[in-house]
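Before relying on records like the one below, remember that each one covers exactly one chain. Contacts with other chains, cofactors or solvent are not represented anywhere in the record.
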Amino acid sequence: MRQVFPFNDWYYKDSFSNDDLKNESFKDFKKVTIPHTNKEIPFNYFDEKETMFISCYRKKIIFKPEWKDRRIFIKFYGVSSVADVYLNGKHLGCHKGAYTAFEYELTGYLHKDKDNIITVKVDSTERNDVPPFGHLIDYLCYGGIYRDVELIVSDDIYIRDMHLTPLDVLKENKKLAVKLYLDSLQAVKNAQVNILFNKENRSFIADVKKGKNTVEFELDDLKADLWSIDNPVLYEVEVELNGNIIKDKTGFRTVKFLPDGFYLNEEKIKLCGLNRHQSYPYVGYAMPKRAQEKDAEILNDLGINIVRTSHYPQSRYFLNRCDELGLLVFEEIPGWQYIGDEKWKKLALKNVEDMINEGYNHPSIILWGVRINESDNDFDFYEETNRIAHELDKTRPTGGVKYMEKADFQEDVYVMNEFELGKRERKHIDQNMATGLDHDVPFLISEFVGAWHPTKRYDTSAVRADQALRHAYGHDESMLDDRLCGAIAWCAFDYNTHYQFGPGDRVCYHGIFDMFRIPKKYATAVYESQLDPHVKPVLEPAIVWSNGDIDECGFLPMYIFSNCDYVEFYFGDKMGRRLYPYKRLFAGLKHAPMYLDRVDREVYNRWDWLDASFVGYVDGKEVIRKKYAKDPMPKKLRITPDDLKLCARKKEEAYDVTRVVFEALDQYGNVLDYMFDWIEIKVEGGELIGPDKTNLQGGCLAAWVKADKKGVIKISARTAKLKSDTVKIKVE
């Protein structure tokens, strides 16, 4: 049988020499668990070169009697950025690139009568021969073995991969093509193949050739529901070939990008999304399954329908969760503006191949990005990236993110970064000006806003409101233009970067969430306010209730982001205005923001400052109310974990983790936007990622806590003024 085992307990040291290949001692190494970052860094103001060094991971493998006559492989899902793998001093291979998986066979080099030592030399420097490096890039790539490692035990016929291709998707009786990629040590005539689909077993006979080869099968007359955004139905497919079993899931759906828009299952859908970087505070890329899944959930809960994996393939756990949630994905190869020499390009072509092979079965992926983000034209190079993509996958179109007008159009979808979108004075995108063509083509905006209006969560309310309005303007224009397939805003989460970008503190504040995934609440409300108010009423006045946070004092003018039918504003106990959606300015949005520019003088006197209330109504009934204090004071330190149950770590498994959010609240439960007190976090029974003493950032902070053994994790915090309750998380 084909068996897959987690393989995540390692030893690590922050240096490497050739002596490490001869010396079997574990002296100077420390125990670590994968995912692992080569060096934890501060939240900001650090030298990015701190993570750019060569390190060493080492592990002992004891040969097991049941491995006799079996084949043994090791698979790495992500190492940043170059990995040289050795077994007992023998060099198995070198993998270049941080974002795709790779594997090596150990069988012929394993000692049966003594310990085996596997060593991984990890080069985390920014090497010119490895995409995305070669010039400046606006994000950090960190270092270490930051995604899972697996040990795979197989018989002579090794199933390397499986592609599942739904066919006749829109017919009542559907088909599924199954393609197995094999590496066999022997030729086998009439090998028995059993395929289990939706509890129904189909049997086939296949001839297996020696070496690397493929076998293909087709299941017909299948009863299956369509996979869609609202009904993301997945079907597990289990294939057994001579006792070797491989499993995966797929969904039945069709994808079309046309000049008049995007179609899923022949239904026209306007794409509305965000870009995602996979980095986290302190540990960079090194976060396990639950954290990756949580990012997909955060984005899905906003109400967006697509995410772009900027600027590289991302975690299988993130993609799996997108499959389950019905969140569409635009995935692209690693790169940022720069195209290197021929060896560099050859590696980029391999990235196309690896990205598609790894992501092939994900129904959420609807578009392959086969052009280096914002790069110049290179016709021959991009002819080859497109050829590889179309040869490997005939079911999905290709796109390539451009930054300049009239760039070569070699892909199926013209994809453009258009940062003018989102400005009130530039409400119209002329497709033909962008493409230089005299006819319409499938056209998608892949970035707008972020870099043109960086915003911290604790900026003044005017700056934060402007960020929100730019997102609203951009998506409003997209909704109104039938020649646009949609728009994907830059970006979801703030991220670490090089000193040449951002405000110099090594953080790009382009997100609508900060790096801790805490909302910049005006901008996130733009998206949430498009949800059904009967499911989730949203009401977010874009103001700090004070008499001096914006120019010319007072609180006017003010936008309110809401999905309510109307909102009543009260100054003290007097109603100052009833507000309705501002459809004249936002005709494309399902729920337009509301605008408050004046209040009766009899109600409002700026020198007699009072509490304020906003009350939202749907179908004539009050559904949401927010109250703001005239004199906000710290009253409570709220502590909120994402999860109350975690999994205890078994040997060789990756650790489990959850995020815990800390918020300093006033007397009405509102976050104190400009509170920066120190905070001390106490964790018992688990491990805190990052410092236990730091500062609130605009009244908030979050931290991730690792689970280890079975029991209870207790978490609490205190500031100079407040003390939280203690929350308990069960580890089972």
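The chain has a mean pLDDT of 95.
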